[in-house]
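Notes to self, FAD/NAD(P)-binding domain-containing protein:
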Amino acid sequence: MHVLISGAGIAGPTLAWFLVQTDIKVTIVEKSDAIRPYGQSIELQATALAAFKKTGLWDQVLARNTTERGTQFVDTSGRPFALFPVREGLQASFTSAFEILRGDLADILYQATKNHPNVTYRFSTTITRVLHNNESGVAVEFNDGTASSFDLLVAADGQWSKVRAQVFDASTVTTLHKGMYGAYWTIPRIPADNAWWNIYIALRRRIMALRPDPYGTARVYVTCMPGASEEKRWREVARADRQTQEDLLKSEFSDAGWQAKRFLEGLEQAPDFYFQVVEQIRMERWSRGRVVCLGDAAYAPTPLTGAGTSLAVLGAYALAGEISELEGGQHPSKALDGYEERFRPFVEATQKIPGVVPGIAHPTTGWQRWLLETGLRVAAWLLGQSWMARWLGSEEQEDEGFPLPRYERFEGLNGE
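result:
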């Protein structure tokens, strides 16, 4: 079998790693000219830890930990008022003990697969057209004008997947807007910065945050929930060029308080600026013929869940596992059906976000902010009690919500 994967982020290379354990040939195309080193802190939760540890790459993940000590909420002067420190082995903080930058995890996966004889990476390459998708195979045309046929095409090209748009009818894909917009970028670190995820709740439904990294810089993340009268403007800017997006952020956050001035001054020089509409992707079905969607292309859960990376890794493991159980010459539809049957219930449960989220974290008035901050103070105190931390359970509770499927070809892999 020869599998074509579109996208060299997290889901695609993870799938490739597992597929080549079963002697399957893999080609990965990526629109960038190299693995992108950018991105914010991400984590692997619960069962995703168990799946990833099978790769034998876990020590490399730990070695590139962001060194974040925990999460703290700060006032406009930068004084912390609610602290949620990382407590070894316990779920007592918004920060995980396994935080890693997205670019670092992508690089680990790339380095682990790039030299395998059954893996080919093609950078600066995109799929411009799916020529056919039928019983015999799937054929595509690339942006260099060449065409090739494969047994399976995996769309792992992100939330706004161009492969998905070509193959799946728009009526079968639902985009669920959460009313929130976010932007990420990196700024120089200063001596006053600490090793905490610092979160500042501004008024007018704005949040600003700063997180450490292991490279002598700091990662900014801002969010905003614009009112109904401003929603159209924000959505239009989300589709505009970078300068227009920067101008909007400067106009909206200049009076936010705390370190707004510093963050905005570092915006123009940031090499990794990213503006995001916070939306979920929900599909009626993840596959059609010999084309299947994976990761954010199939089920982007939004950063509000903190589970995007975990779903990408688990989805890749489950898809590869189902493919590994195909008998010689068997149509891949059996594996695609199994992938969806096993994994969809967990995905749908993960995507369920309470109706008050994210609005409750974005107060408009001082009174609303006082209530939120009071609640955070109480939560921080409770989580500081040993009995509460024990009740929440271990951060490495590997079967939480989704028992890891067992596939014969993946038993006894590295790390077991």
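- The mean pLDDT is 94.
- The radius of gyration is 22 Å.
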